[in-house]
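Loading example: each entry is read as two labelled lines plus one structure line.
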Amino acid sequence: MLPSPIDLSEKLKQFTDQWSPKTIAEMDGFQFKLVKVQGDFVWHQHADTDEAFLVLAGELRIDFRSGSVVLKPGQMLVVPKGVEHKPFSEHECHLMLFEGAGTVNTGDAAANELTSDPTAEL
Amino acid sequence: MLPSPIDLSEKLKQFTDQWSPKTIAEMDGFQFKLVKVQGDFVWHQHADTDEAFLVLAGELRIDFRSGSVVLKPGQMLVVPKGVEHKPFSEHECHLMLFEGAGTVNTGDAAANELTSDPTAEL
C-alpha cells in the first residue's frame, strides 16, 4: 500500500470553521494539523509537547508573556512545552501545526468555547 | 527569551549543495530540515523514524518497491519507518523534512557519496 500525498490547499478547502485544528497526517506519536484562525485566542501552554506553527496564508502574531512574534507565509516557529502563548490574527490566517498526538488546542486553559475536538481529522 | 521566526525562503538561500539536509528547527527529539535535491538518490529505509516530506518548490517523485508517488509544491507525505524508498527529482526540488533528530539521510544504505552530515544546521 503506497503512502498517499496530502495536498494542503485541497485539505484547507474542506473546512471553514476557525480555531478547530484538523489532523491531516500522523507520525511517531505526533500530528500535522491544519487550522484557520482569526481574532484572539486564549492564553495557554502545553505541558507535554513542543508545538510548531507554520504559516501558509495570512499573518499570525503569537503573544508571549515577554513579547510578540509575527509570522508571515513561509515562516515557522517552535513554541517549547510549558511556555504560555496566545495566537492572534486580525484577518483569517491558515496554519499548519505540528504537535504531540491528541493535543488539545487550549492546552491548560479551562475548556471554553474555543476548545475543539482533538480527534478531528480530514 | 522569545522563540525566533524561521523563514524558509531565507534559509533556502543560505546553501546550494544538494542531498544535504540542514536542520532549521528542533522539537521533542525531532528535527525540521531543509534540503535541495536533484537526480536519483539511493534506496534506503529508516528503521527508527517515520519521515515526512513537504515539497516547497519543484516536483519530487518517491519510488517505493510497490510503485511511485509524485509530490508537487504544497503536498506532503509520510514514509513510515522501515519502508524502503528512493527520492528522485529531474529538476532541482526544495523540500522540508521532518524526522527523528540525528537521522542519516541514506538510512540503512552503506555510507556513500550521498551520505551527508546529520548534524548540519542553519
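The mean pLDDT of chain A is 94.
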